[in-house]
Amino acid sequence: MSEILDVLLAVLGGAIRVGTPFLFVSLGECLTEKAGRINLGLEGVLVFSAMAGFGGSYLTGLWWVGVLLAGASGALIAALHGLVSSLPRVNDIAAGIAIMLFGAGLAFYLGKPLIQPQAPQIPSLPLGAWSDTAKVVAALQVNVLFPAGVVLALALAWALKNTGWGLKVRMVGDSADAARALGTSVAGVRIAATTAGGFIAGLGGASLSLYYPGSWNEGLSSGQGLIAVALVIFARWQPVKCLWAALLFGGAGALGPALQSVGVTGYYHLFNAVPYVLTLAILVWTCSPRQSVRGAPAELGVVR
Amino acid sequence: MNARATAESIALPVLALAGGLALFGLFVWVGGHSPVQAWTLLFRGAFGDSFSIQNTLQRAAPLMLTALAVALPARAGLTVIGGEGALVLGGLAAAALPYAMPLPQGTAGTAILLVSAAAAGAAWVALAGWLRQWRGVNETISSLLLGYVAIALFKHIVEGPLRDPASLNKPSTLPLAEPLRIGSIGVFGLSDVHWGLVFGVVACVAATFWLSLTTHGFATRVVGGNPRAARLVGLPATALIVTACAFGGAAAGLAGGIEVAAVHTSANASLIAGLGYTGILVSFVARHHPLAVIPVAILFGGFLAAGSLLQRRMGLPDASVQVLMGFCFVIILASEALRGRLGELFVLRRAPVGGSDAAGGAGGGAGSSPALATAAATSGAAR
């Protein structure tokens, strides 16, 4: 019985720990997709920014420099996606695949000297300090980026709904023709949204390399960026729902390590595949061949 | 396709690859290395002597097959990138079959192994195509996710139920019996190149034949090129799409089976080497044309073969070839923007262009300048 409780507690703590990168990448992707483009390259953005964030923190000794550098480098890589897919006859999905491989290759190349060392980590908030059980305290050590992500989700939802800037993004995403008729630069807004989305996703990369797992290696991200892309469809392009979806996927991702810690090891690899299978199941459940998914930006090709 | 379009179809990727190599040179130069040395080593490591040529061909063989896993579904209109998963499962199927049934020792046994490898790959990629037709699930995302699931399944089975107790440091299945393995061709000076190369070339030629000369292949291209027309003439789109995906997956699964039977002799983690991902790039550079896949796969096989030379001689990280491929991929896509106006590029530069918004949606809405309108029209015709 206590083992089940332990697993539940570990999954809850893990949901936040593992879910934080999901949250940032899905918020970044949400913004990008609201403007009518899909950026599959966020997987590459995530890997590259994780490397850059780790490098920044290691070289300066300041974790927040690493976090900012991760965001900036994520924005840079995403801007490349935005520019390339603004060219005529370039498909944003294909550009995403290219950026995925490009970002990963560049990160592995530049990150070679960073595999061994330790870098100053992102501090954690002791949300479990009220409890005198060590396990509760340990499970509720929360990455400071997580509350920042919650605030960001709320802010993004508000800004998309209530600001002129948000209206522009939604207009470009729902009808490029209408935007053009009003004299808005469709490509410009999309590039800006993709770049900003890359910055947000880059913060998720920092959370990977500077909090959990908290080091840089070539296997750091295995599809988290991609899962986050699918997660946005599940969240129906609503930033606040991205938060819940990220926690759900974080919990699914934490299941394997949690079971391993109580001695269930035989199915380690299969439990690690749970998030992918869950994502597929959710896509099958959410999508429909006949109409586009409810809430989808009309210009988005991915859910046609 | 007229002569000019054909010439352009060759010139554009060649120019783009040159651009990728140039950017890579710039990249290593910024890192304090000599770009000329990097280019020289890339060429020497790929095609410099008989050893490197054989190494190149050895690596090109699976790339041809994994490129088909992208190219064939692409001709049916799908961007499937599940080659890595199909390859891994194909390798697993080939290594696992001797556990399940007694096999005739010799060529017949090898053939059965390879058929099971192709079937495993075919099922995996066909699943992504079917999910799209059945539920409208984006096939690019689902095929990538299925790839991760395939790798997890592979690791679970190789490190668990089928693990050879003798493989201590590197979990592997039991090695294939000697008569089941694939040997080297051993003629024309190809003493080290295994028969996988022949499989790759034959598969590419067969795929070209299927697409260009059979009714079924033509119908597949109609579904991919103009889904509306396909619907109007009553083509069975779902069957054609799933079949094209299955063909592509079979090729990648075959690649996995061959890698196991010819190189690794058992299924282990060495199989997960990113060959499926490199195949994506090969297919895009070859513009999803199976016959063009052959030379492009040899070129990138050469770059992979030269990677270790860059590492040894210049002290570059082993990911340098990945960086090179990343540059090539981005530029190859960007070069599509020049299609149909390679000759008039410099004229267009000076002409007033209707604002950056015209670049927004490919062929979406009327561009405000005549040049862009014709570009949109030709792009429609090219599809």
Question: What does this protein structure show overall?
Answer:
The complex is a heterodimer of chains A (304) and B (383). Chain A is built from 13 helices and two strands, in the order H-H-H-H-E-H-E-H-H-H-H-H-H-H-H. Chain A has helices spanning 2-34, 42-60, 63-84, 92-110, 134-139, 145-162, 164-174, 176-181, 186-210, 224-234, 239-261, 268-272, 274-286; strands at residues 124-126, 141-143. A two-stranded antiparallel sheet of chain A has the order 1-2. In chain A, helix 2 (42-60) crosses helix 10 (224-234), helix 3 runs antiparallel to helix 4 and helix 10 (224-234) packs across helix 11. Chain A starts with a helix and ends in an 18-residue tail after the last helix. The mean pLDDT of chain A is 90. With 383 residues, chain B is mostly helical. Chain B is built from 15 helices and no strands. The N and C termini of chain B lie close together (12 Å). Chains A and B meet through helix 4, helix 8, helix 9, helix 10 and helix 12 of A and helix 5, helix 6, helix 11, helix 13 and helix 15 of B.
Please outline what is shown here.
The complex is a heterodimer of chains A (304) and B (383). With 304 residues, chain A is an all-alpha fold.
How many domains comprise the coordinates of chain A? 1
Q: Briefly note the CATH topology name of the largest domain in chain B.
A: ABC transporter involved in vitamin B12 uptake, BtuC
Largest sheet of chain A: 2 strands, antiparallel
Radius of gyration of chain B: 22 Å
Order of neighbouring strands in the sheet with most strands of chain A: 1-2
CATH fold title of chain A: ABC transporter involved in vitamin B12 uptake, BtuC
Distance between the first and last residues' Cα of chain B: 12 Å
Quaternary state of this entry equals heterodimer
H-E order of chain A: HHHHEHEHHHHHHHH
Determine and state the CATH class of the largest domain in chain B.
Answer: Mainly Alpha
User: What is the N-to-C succession of helices and strands of chain B?
Assistant: HHHHHHHHHHHHHHH
What level of helicity do the residues of chain B show? Answer: over 70%
What is the overall shape of chain B?
globular
Largest sheet data of chain B: none
The beta-strand count of chain A equals 2
